[in-house]
TrEMBL record:
Protein name: ABC-F family ATP-binding cassette domain-containing protein
Domain ABC transporter: 4-257, 324-537
Molecular function terms from GO: ATP binding; ATP hydrolysis activity; DNA binding
Keyword tags: ATP-binding, Nucleotide-binding, Repeat
Length: 638
C-alpha cells in the first residue's frame, strides 16, 4: 500500500534549481536508500517530506494517520531529565492509559456487579496490550543497550552527556516512537561496528517504511530493497540494494555511451553529406531535407554519471618485505593504558584494517606508530626503506591560515603552478576554491585536500584514520580503487564495513583492552566470530559430562554430604507436591461453587469467592515455583 507520494517536486534557491520534476511513491513496507553526491539536495528533499520546508513547486502528500519521523526533529532533549525519564516520555499517553486501567481495577473491585464497567475494562486492556503497554519498558531497555547506553547510565542527567551521546540518544528516542514512515539522514555516522550491526538487525524487522540517506554502502546493501538516485537535478529509481544499483547504473551509462557514440557518428555523416551537397544544384533539395531532419533530432547526451574525482597513490621506492613487527606492545597515555599485548606483523602489500568500538584505542595505535605517543610496553620494529604517510581523521595536518594552493605548493616548491592547479582540479577544487584558506573549507573539502597532499608524497606505507569520513559515495568509490591499485602497504582504522570488506586482507579487532588478528576481510571476520560463538556454546554443553566424571572422584565425606542434601531436596519436593495437590483441590471446589447459577448471578457472593480463588492461585504459583526449584537443584546432583 502506498503511504506517501512526491509529485513534480522542484526546489530553487535564487536563480539555481537544485532539482525538478521529482516524482516518487513510498510503500508501507519500503526500504529505500537515497543516494547522490554531496550538495544535490538529499537533506532538502527530506525536509520537504517532513513539512519543515516548502518546495518551490509540486507537493509531497502523506496518507491520513501516517506519522513521519525524522532524526533532526528529535534533537531537542530535556537536559534536566534522566535518560530513562526522557525515553519514557515517548510513551506518556500509554502510561496515562495504564493509570486509567489501574483506577478501573479498583472500581471493579468496589463494584464487581457492573457489567458495562467490565466490558470497558476488557476493551481498554486489549487496546493497551496492542499498543505495547506491557512491553514498552523492555523496548526502551533493548534499544538503549543496542546504542551502548548500559543500565548504569539510565539515571544520568541528559545535560551531563557529550554531544555524541546526545545524538545517539535522540536516535533512540526516534526509534522508540516507531513512526510509520522513518526518515534517516546519515544514521550510521559516529556509530561503532557493534552498534551498526545491531541497528541493521533492528531496522530489517522494523514494522514501518524507511527512507535513508547514507554513504555507507554496506548498510545500504543489507537494508535497502530500492535505491533513489538524486543527481543532476533529477531523481531516478532502481530496484534492489546498493550493489544492484551500481551494476544497473553502470549498464545504463554503457548503453547511453554506446547510443551517444552511434548517434554522433550518424550526425557526423549527415553533416558531411550536407556540407558536400548543399551547394550542388542536383543535390541541394536532398541536403536541405537532411539538414531539417538533423535539426529536429533529439540529441542523446553523453552519460554524466562518471567519477570526476581522480586519486592515485604510488610509492617512490619499495619498502622491505617486513613493514612493522609488533611484539607485546602496550599503548595508551601516562594516566591510562588503552590496549595491551599487541603482537602481529605487517608485510609489504598488506591491507590491514583496525576495527573496534569508539574510544577503545584504535587511533592511539596509529599515533604510537607515528611516534606521537611512546609505547607503554613492548616494542615496534620498523622495516627497511619505510616512507610513512599519515591521514589524520581530525585533519589536523593542515594549516588553517594557508590557502589551498599554498598548502600543496609549500610542500612541492619546484612544481609549476599550472601542475598544482591541475592536480587540485582533479580533486574537484575550482579556481575559486584554490584561493580559499583551509579554515574556510568544508569537512569534505578538507578531506580531499588531505588526500591530495598525501598522494603527492609518494610514500610506500600509508596510515589512514577513518579516511572515508566526510566523503560522499562517489569519492569513496574512487578512494577504494586508488588504494586497491596502490603498490605499497596500507594500515587503516575504519568503521566503514563496505570499505573494509573491499580492501582488507587482515583485520585487527581491538576489544576489551586486547587486539586479535583475523587473516581475511570483514566477511571472514564475521564468519570467524560466529564460529567462535558456536564453539563456546558447544564447550558449555560438553562441560556437563566432564563435570559428571569429576564427581565420581568425590571423597567419602563429600559424597555423604551430597547424599544428605539430595534427601533434603527430595523431602522438599514431596512436601511441595502434597501442597500443590491440596491447593488444586481447593481451587476446583471454589470454581465449582462459582459456576453454580445462583451464585454466578449474585455479585455479593461471587466477589468474596473470587478473592478466595485469587489467594489460592497465588499460593499455588508459589508452591509450583518451590517445586520447580527443588527439582532443578536435584537434577544438578544427578
Amino acid at each position: 500500500m502506498i503511504i506517501a507520494q512526491g509529485h513534480d517536486l522542484e526546489q530553487q534557491f535564487g536563480a539555481n534549481t537544485l532539482f525538478k520534476n521529482v516524482t516518487f511513491s513510498i510503500d508501507s513496507n519500503a526500504r529505500i536508500g537515497l543516494v547522490g553526491p554531496n550538495g544535490v539536495g538529499k537533506t532538502t528533499l527530506l525536509k520537504i517530506m517532513t513539512g519543515e520546508q516548502e518546495p518551490t513547486r509540486g507537493e509531497f502528500t502523506v496518507n491520513k494517520g501516517i506519522d513521519v519521523g525524522y532524526i533532526a526533529q528529535e534533537n531537542v532533549l530535556d537536559k534536566d531529565k534522566t535518560i530513562w525519564d526522557e525515553m519514557e516520555s515517548v510513551f506518556a499517553p500509554l502510561i496515562k492509559e495504564g493509570k486509567v486501567l489501574t483506577n478501573m481495577q479498583q472500581q471493579i473491585a468496589d463494584h464487581p456487579e457492573d457489567q458495562d464497567l467490565l466490558k470497558q475494562y476488557d476493551q481498554k486492556q486489549f487496546n493497551f496490550e496492542q499498543k505495547g503497554g506491557y512491553t514498552y519498558q523492555s523496548d526502551i531497555k533493548s534499544i538503549l543497550n543496542g546504542f551502548k547506553f548500559p543500565e548504569d547510565t539510565w539515571q544520568k542527567r541528559i545535560g551531563s552527556l557529550s554531544g555524541g551521546e546526545k545524538t545517539r540518544l535522540a536516535f533512540v528516542k526516534l526509534l522508540l516512537r516507531k513512526p510509520a514512515l522513518l526518515l534517516l539522514d546519515e544514521p550510521t555516522n559516529y556509530l561503532d561496528l557493534d552498534t551498526l550491526d545491531w541497528l541493521e538487525g533492528f531496522l530489517k524487522n522494523y514494522s514501518g517504511a524507511i527512507l535513508v540517506v547514507s554513504h555507507d554502502q554496506y548498510f545500504l546493501d543489507h537494508l535497502a530493497t530500492q535505491i533513489f538516485e538524486l543527481q543532476f537535478g533529477k531523481l531516478t529509481t532502481f530496484k534492489g540494494n546498493y550493489s544492484a544499483y551500481v551494476m544497473q547504473r553502470e549498464q545504463r551509462d554503457k548503453d547511453q555511451e554506446a547510443a551517444y557514440e552511434k548517434q554522433q557518428a550518424e550526425i557526423k555523416k549527415d553533416e558531411e553529406f550536407i556540407q558536400k551537397n548543399l551547394v550542388r544544384a542536383t543535390t541541394t533539395k536532398r541536403a536541405q531535407s537532411r539538414r531539417k531532419k538533423l535539426e529536429k533530432i533529439d540529441r542523446i547526451k553523453p552519460p554524466k554519471h562518471k567519477n570526476k574525482v581522480r586519486i592515485h597513490f604510488s610509492s617512490e621506492r619499495p619498502s622491505g618485505k617486513e613493514v612493522l613487527i609488533f611484539n607485546d606492545l602496550t599503548i595508551g597515555y601516562p594516566e591510562k593504558t588503552m590496549v595491551s599485548d599487541i603482537s602481529f606483523q605487517v608485510n609489504k602489500g598488506d591491507r590491514v584494517a583496525v576495527i573496534g568500538p569508539n574510544g577503545i584505542g584504535k587511533s592511539t595505535l596509529l599515533k604510537t606508530i607515528m611516534k606521537q605517543l611512546k609505547p607503554k610496553g613492548g616494542s615496534i620494529k620498523y622495516g627497511a626503506s619505510l616512507d610513512i604517510g599519515y591521514y589524520d581523521q581530525e585533519l589536523q595536518g593542515l594549516d588553517p591560515s594557508k590557502t589551498v594552493l599554498d598548502t600543496v605548493w609549500d610542500r612541492h616548491k619546484t612544481m609549476p603552478e599550472r601542475d598544482v592547479r591541475s592536480i587540485l582540479a582533479s580533486f574537484l577544487f575550482t579556481a575559486k576554491d584554490i584561493d580559499k584558506t583551509v579554515g574556510q573549507l568544508s569537512g569534505g573539502q578538507k578531506a580531499r585536500l588531505t588526500l591530495t597532499v598525501l598522494s603527492l608524497e609518494h610514500d610506500n606505507f600509508l596510515l589512514m584514520d577513518e579516511p572515508t569520513n566526510h566523503l560522499d559515495i562517489e569519492a569513496k568509490e574512487v578512494l577504494e580503487k586508488a588504494l586497491k591499485d596502490f603498490d605499497g602497504t596500507l594500515l587503516f582504522v575504519s568503521h566503514d564495513r563496505y570499505f573494509i570488506n573491499q580492501l582488507a586482507n587482515k583485520i585487527v579487532s581491538v576489544r576489551d583492552g586486547h587486539a586479535k588478528i583475523y587473516n581475511g576481510n570483514y566477511s571472514y571476520y564475521l564468519d570467524e566470530k560466529a564460529k567462535q560463538a558456536n564453539a563456546t556454546a558447544s564447550a558449555t554443553e560438553d562441560a556437563e559430562p566432564v563435570k559428571a566424571v569429576s564427581e565420581q572422584k568425590l571423597s567419602y565425606q563429600e559424597q555423604k554430604q551430597r547424599d544428605s542434601q539430595k534427601r533434603k531436596l527430595q523431602r522438599a519436593i514431596d512436601q511441595a507436591e502434597k501442597e500443590i495437590e491440596d491447593l488444586e483441590a481447593k481451587e476446583k471446589d471454589i470454581q465449582n461453587e462459582m459456576a453454580n447459577p445462583e451464585i454466578a448471578s449474585n455479585f455479593d457472593k461471587l466477589g468474596p469467592l473470587q478473592e478466595q480463588l485469587d489467594e489460592i492461585q497465588k499460593q499455588l504459583d508459589t508452591a509450583n515455583n518451590n517445586w520447580g526449584k527443588a527439582i532443578e537443584e536435584l537434577d544438578n546432583f544427578e
